[in-house]
Amino acid sequence: MKNFRKYILDLCGKKEGYTVEFKSAKGGFPGSFWESYSSFANTAGGIIVLGVTEKNNRFKPDGLTEDQITKFKKVFWDGAHNPQKVSVCLLKEEDVIVDKYTEGSLIIIFRIPRAPFDAKPVYIDGNPKNTYRRNNEGDYLCTQAEISRMYAEADLLAHPLDSTILKNYSLERDFDQPTINQYRQLFKIRQPRHAWNALDDMGFLRKIEAWREDRETGESGFTLAGVLMFGTEEAIHDAAPNFFVDYREKMSSDPRIRYTDRLYPDGTWVPNLFQFYTHVLEKLYHAIPVKFQLEGDGRLDETPAHESLREAVCNSLIHCQWRMLEGVVIERYPDHLYFSNPGTMLISVEEFFEGGHSICRNRILQKMFIVFGRGERLGSGADIIRQGWKENGWPEPELHEHYGSNTDRVELTLRLKNVSVPITEHSSDSSVISSVINAEAVKDMMRKNSKVTHKQMAEALGITERGAEKITKRMRESGDIVRKGGRHGGWWEVLK
Length: 496
What we know:
Layout: H1 4-14, E1 20-23, H2 33-42, E2 46-50, E3 52-55, E4 58-61, H3 66-80, E5 96-102, E6 105-112, E7 132-135, E8 138-141, H4 144-154, H5 171-174, H6 177-190, H7 201-207, E9 211-213, E10 220-222, H8 224-230, H9 233-239, E11 245-249, E12 261-263, H10 273-284, E13 293-295, E14 298-300, H11 304-318, E15 328-332, E16 336-342, H12 349-354, H13 363-371, H14 381-391, E17 398-402, E18 409-415, H15 428-448, H16 454-461, H17 465-477, E19 481-484, E20 491-494
Parallel strand pairs: 1-2, 11-15
Antiparallel strand pairs: 2-6, 3-4, 5-6, 7-8, 9-10, 11-12, 13-14, 15-16, 16-18, 17-18, 19-20
Helix pairs in contact: 6-15, 10-11, 11-14, 16-17
């Protein structure tokens, strides 16, 4: 390796931490080596430097000889290929580097890669209980809960969590009809000639795998994905007791004000994933100080920054481990946006930002977002997020993983630079969503009270009476509703 001495000094400058471990080898190959091997493999990977003594942040080479290095390499490769020593061998020949630090003083470096999700847990001495992870303080022994989560993730491709078939769920009792209507309306807007538009709700839900049949077991029923996306609050919590979605705005500098706005399951709305997505996206569009772009004489209502936000929200929902103890958190601050979901990355952070890598924890949820034009395939989500921020000269997106005994989390931070007062208009996507949601809400009011007035509609929707009149006008023109009787004694009839 060129400039080996500089490379070692750079590692010493990082000190021991999350991705670097120095071990003395004066007394032979250190037994603690394999604990660090396991811990790096089960987290983000790392480097073990053998032949350097560290004390009080001072580093001193052990002065290893060629004979010692040869013995250490044999000990390592024998152990790495022995399942009674370590459960899986992750290194290639090029991952073991030997070079001179000074004349007569050799150092050996082991570059431990992050283990693939289906190879975890990586454990030692033939016992899964000897599974380690890494934190800033060094290697720690995993709890049984952490080990169980790794085994569950390893089985992800064969048995995706969101494809779980739920027993005793029904369309009429456990699904929110306005949500299904809104979703189908968005699908129809984007694909007006699609054959699925002619299906009844049950037929449509089968197509998007909200209901499925397991050919191996013969079981059939609604899936966890279907209930999470379209279910009522009671149905969701029966299927996933720890389910929680939380949007918070922290825009005030006054420490007495905890939140300037918050959206969470408080009984005032149906907190399924479709409703959370549409409500949060509408709020987040206010956060980015990006004006609409022009192309020729027309306006491009959606900029790359808006696409970045959509993809960030989708990523948090479709990559979430929905049965962990914590839920999805999305926060808006004056200078940045924060997205966090339970679970670990199924690929490394580096692979995520390289693009072209795609492993989805919730395949059916991903399909449901793709059906109405959201949630990218083939690992292009990172490219979309980065591109929108890059085009505006904003800082590179920051992605981190945090491991814990009770839950693991993935955190994405999108920082805003040169933030001004955000525009108050919405992009076309937000406008379409708002329009569909308002129209479906109006239909629901009309079904309950055929003589509902524009004033009552406006009060329920939080808009002006003139705005309510515009909504019913569009609905009448599209043939969704009809007005019967006189102006003062008439009533509404919902046609579709």
